[in-house]
Design goal:
heterodimer; A: mainly alpha; MetI-like fold; B: 13 helices; globular
Amino acid sequence: MATKLTARRSRKTSPTSETPLVQGLLIALSLLFMGVILLLPLYAVFHEALIKGPGAYFAALLEPDAQSAIRLTLLVAAIAVPLNLVFGVAASWAIAKFEFKGKAFLITLIDLPFSVSPVISGLVYVLLFGAGSVLGPVLKSYGIEVLFALPGIVLATIFVTFPFVARELIPLMQDQGTGDEEAALSLGANGWQTFFLVTLPNIKWGLLYGVLLCNARAMGEFGAVAVVSGKIRGQTTTIPLQVEMLYNEYNATAAFALASLLALLALVTLVLKSALEWRFSAEIAAGNH
Amino acid sequence: MGFTLTYFSLIILVPLLALAFRSAGLGPASFWIAASDARVLGALRVSFVTALIAAAVNVVFGTLIAWVLVRYRFPGRRIFDAVIDLPFALPTAVAGIALTAIYAPNGTIGALFAPLGWRIAYTPAGIVIAMIFIGLPFVVRTIQPILEEVSHEVEEASATLGATRFQTITRVLLPSLTPAILTGFALAFARGVGEYGSIIFIAGNIPFVSEIAPLLIYIRLQEFNYVGATVIATVMLLISFALLFAINLIQAWSRRRYGYGN
């Protein structure tokens, strides 16, 4: 009896793991921290949005300025995401399948928008196209407005969402090497056939993953867009900017109602992202460093 | 290839060069005058001090969370693992108003501290909270893959040689995690310094107390003071590049020392 008890105790306090008590405490502490820091804000968005009931909630969403913000956000994402998708595929293709000088430098530069403050990302376009710049007045004389208009918002959004697809695909394509492509070419496929029938199917899940993250950021970008949009109500306000305006006007319920749309988008993104990770972990694993 | 470089140059390089040229065109004397403005220095101090505190908190809890997620099995582990990425997916403005609602004196957590006379929202403490929110996934996601790679054998070897569990963790495991922890710290710090959206709602934005550098850039732009904005941006960019450089050095060192990096 006594030996059995010691045996059990020594198994519990195995030298390469912690006692169940310590494990439990560490798990509880982690979950508490995550609950307060991460989950509580998410809950707060929906709680505040629905605090005056579903009537006020849907009224806030159907309000004309809110509708135009939703339309603008969808339009901006519809332009910026495909452009960055094409670029991301082209850049990772060039980096992974060819050797050229300055490659390491290019990879570093692709990550640049991640380490630049979003306000600075917007500022660079103000300097390029604003009053006192060279380009701005020239374009204006042709009737093209960049700042405080759609082109500026799209450019700033492209800037901040630029790395998502590429940084997902580069490690994946480097991992896969060029064997499949060489086989296809040697069997008589031309360049485009090789790309669409061999390369693309190999990277499709990694690509989807990158596009998902790119889209979430494109629809939710705030700092960079705030700088270039001019915040003209009903015209150049995206959903995040409309949320800010409503909030600053003490219309918190309407602000949280619109914010809940973006929170839903974030939840859908997370669910799809996790599903992709669990289902195709091997095929996108290379991108998870 | 040509397409890649053209697109890249147009979107990223040309705008950043425009910033550099504007800055260089000022001349060192006027650059220094604008950069040493008391309000600018105050904003930079607020940004860097709060980001430092938030990154330190995130290193402690981020390492703990990465450890718990990798080593322990408990119900809901996968869901909590997915939730770590929430700050990547949730737009910063949404996070900002949600955090303000929680930590304001009448909010869920703010109300707990209000009777003690502690205010979180509209003070630098609120800035730290927002930076902890946005920085946490950087630390967890940097440490997690490294922790998964650390082999159990070194722990077993350490235990057979008579080390207690605590000694094994502090002398065997922690040193091999140090590069990842430092990288996570630098990433969370860099993100915190540049963050705008989630902070401006909760900060209170009082100059010299809770006004962050990115907000001051925004204010200068609203005043059409492009020179002022450019100078602050340049100082912040230089510091960010120094940080990126430091991260690369840490990773190179880690690869040499431990044979892997991230």
